[in-house]
Amino acid sequence: MKIIAITPDRKMNTLATLVIDGLYDLGIEVIATDSGNGVHPDHIYTDDEVIEHSKDADYIFAIFCKVKNCNPPKYYLLDKINRPEVTAYITDSEWTCTSNPDSPSQPAECLTDLRRHRGNPWIDEEMYEKCRWYFKRIVFEEDLERDKIIPCYIGSWNEYFKLDGLNFDKEFDYYCSFGGNAGHINNGLRSPIYQYLLEHQKDYNSIVGERLEYYDYLETIKKSFIGISAWGAGNCCRRMWEIISNGTCCFIQKPFIIYPHKFVDGESCVYYETIGEFKEKLDYYIHNKEECIRIGKNGYNHTKKYHTGKARVEYMLKVMEGTPWQEA
Q: Distance between CA atoms of 80 and 76, rounded to whole angstroms?
């Protein structure tokens, strides 16, 4: 199989990296437009070469990128390729279809009004017209009224599993990697959670709001009974996947977006919706560490089965071949 990938220009993109991981893991020939996100240097082609390869490509993947300090993806090639019947648009945009808030107050408004996560414009209508499938990270019930929109959640990059096979004794009751000098505190329930954990840090063997080098960060996750995640702008967070990919029980601020193969509270994760529920469950699981071990293993196995790059691309291909997304 050969797929044209119109990729972000060097800029890291969460869903782009996941998809590129999956394409390579499935042995698919990748014809990419730009470097970054795991694209092999020898798989980057000129515009003319991309157009030539597109004539016999199985699919065209046009991948979103927030345009900031980088060139926009080469979407102009879609008109020259002119194969909308095999084109998929893949977007992990948040706030709006551009990933820019629709007003300076939108992030703050989302803290009290969940509907404000769905900003305006929400759908890129130009890309919607140029594709057959519109794979979208953040999908609400009303989005499914549009025929082309398909839930496409982020997941676990191959990089998150780099400590697979290495065993570490559990040392910390919990690890919270936001707040303090780690930052990233202005979305979801992050601020009240950070403040609560900081106030109670002396009561537990824990790490709260400390920035670490990436290897040390993953090792600390593995050494923790509990890893704590809360929403970013997109009602989900890369932190969640990093925790689960390392076999640690993940506390997840429960998302309300739609996606297949969800995690199950008390089985493969621990969900919370309010700061009160977070406190109650944290107290319970800190005193029931065998449950943390069990949930961490289940979450890891669930992720390996359904939420790696390979699994995500397999899901996309099944949908593109005609399987309903709910069954893919």
A: 7
